[in-house]
Amino acid sequence: MSRAYPRKLYRDDALVLRCQKLGEADRIVTLFTRRHGRVRAVGKGVRRTTSRFGARLEPFGHIDVQIAEGRSLHVVSQVEGISLYGRRIGSDYARYTAASAIVETAERLTPEEQEPALRLYLLTLGAVRALGDDDDRSPPLILDSYLLRAMALSGWAPALTECAVCGQVPESLLDGVGPQQTAFSVPAGGVVCVNCRPPGAAAPSTATMSLLTALAAGDWKTAGASDGPARRQASGLVAALLQWHLERGLRSLPLVDRR
Amino acid sequence: MYEGAIQDLIDELGRLPGVGPKSAQRIAFHILSAEQADVTRLATALRRVKEQVRFCRICFNVAEADECRICRDARRTDEVLCVVEEPKDVVAIERTGEFRGRYHVLGGAINPLEGVGPDNLRIRELMTRLSGGAVKELILATDPNTEGEATATYLALLVKPMGIAVTRLASGLPVGGDLEYADEITLGRAFEGRRALDV
């Protein structure tokens, strides 16, 4: 006689990272939950127009969800919306592409399912909220700030104020700017002094270094005052750092609208 | 594990979307016990679909000639163009009997998480069609989800400078449903899109 699999129910608040079609009308939803980390669950029948909670399982939604544990995939049994940012983000292409890169990063930085990562969860939710609210900060800057801080939470904080190799403050970063330009090495993990500079190190401008420091610290006044060349150079360095640590680039990062 | 042809068939069927190993086995044994004529018809249909079906050179709907049935129909207006994600969306809109314009099938929606950007869709071809000057209204009928909304926003921004009217399909309540069961997003959109009653 077969026995029904005893399903454990749990409730958590979560950010919807991604949806993938499954079968006729279902979706596999990847959720970043507060207490259970990253979870993949099936939303049954959510693609049907008659679905009662399909709209709440759209990407970038902050939801209160009840999940039934399954043998392989969990099943979403109830959903309430807390703040559904999908519509605001979807109606602005720059916000949409930046939010996509943020949720893909969150997914990549949580390789194990059901491993709680509260600080990364709160950081990701904050970044998506900034994109979903009528915040006047530039979406690419929000993305770059998120990437720097997410890397820091994962133990990959780039050295921005002292040499990544010897720990000394490079002359170029001292007050008054020294004779040498700042060198930045992605494999070394950030700024390098003239003695430790490896071949092929980048040479970011002072404005770029100020922007990177401001983005890592959340100094939005300085970040907002930065110019286009500094933003482009900073985003290139952040992307290179992330790719170096993840060993594989994000699919969404080249599609971010930085105009 | 079976041997030879039957296992090959189970393996091939199991590669189809939504068909698991058990279903593949069930379908394979159904084919094995079916009439020869039925199986031949199925095999012919499978071969024909690969040999004869292609994409329409104008709208990229599925067609058996260079141009699809809708693009060849002279009774339809060239002034209204409806943009959809997939050929199956054309069928869904055609079933309404409400639309007499032309279509353009994008081949998906912008989805950075899957690596699908504007260059992976038939947006360049759409812009070429629009530059012809015949189209007066562009209806964006992408799916009412985040990817579909973002794709519609992207297209609206591209088309705006061309002076073509850009419209989006309305979102709202399904016919025959009870208001109390509608979710807050759908009901909110229905409120936004409310219209005056002509009485």
3D structure, described in words:
Chain A: Residues 9-84 form the DNA replication/recombination mediator RecO N-terminal domain. Chain A: Involved in DNA repair and RecF pathway recombination. Chain A: InterPro entries: ARFGAP/RecO, DNA_rep/recomb_RecO_N, NA-bd_OB-fold, RecO, RecO_C. Chain A: Keywords: DNA damage, DNA recombination, DNA repair. Chain A: It comes from Actinocatenispora rupis. The complex is a heterodimer of chains A (259) and B (199). With 259 residues, chain A is an alpha+beta fold. Chain A folds into two domains: 8-135, Beta Barrel (OB fold (Dihydrolipoamide Acetyltransferase, E2P)), CATH 2.40.50; 138-259, no CATH class. In chain A, 34% of the residues lie in helices and 21% in strands. Chain A is built from seven helices and seven strands; from the N terminus they run E-E-E-E-E-H-H-H-H-E-E-H-H-H. In chain A, strands 1-2-3-5-4 form a five-stranded mixed barrel. In chain A, strands 6-7 form a two-stranded antiparallel sheet. In chain A, a hairpin with a 3-residue loop joins strand 1 (9-22) and strand 2 (26-33). The longest helix of chain A has 19 residues, at 228-246. By secondary structure, chain B is α/β, with parallel strands linked by helices. Chain B has two domains: 4-51, Helicase, Ruva Protein, domain 3 (Orthogonal Bundle), CATH 1.10.8.420; 77-196, Dna Topoisomerase Vi A Subunit, Chain: A, domain 2, CATH 3.40.1360.10. In chain B, the strands form two sheets. In chain B, strands 4-3-5-6 form a four-stranded parallel beta sheet. Chain B has a two-stranded antiparallel ribbon with strand order 1-2. The longest helix of chain B has 17 residues, at 36-52. Classes of the chains: A alpha+beta (259), B alpha/beta (199). Chains A and B meet through helix 1 and helix 2 of A and helix 7 and helix 8 of B.
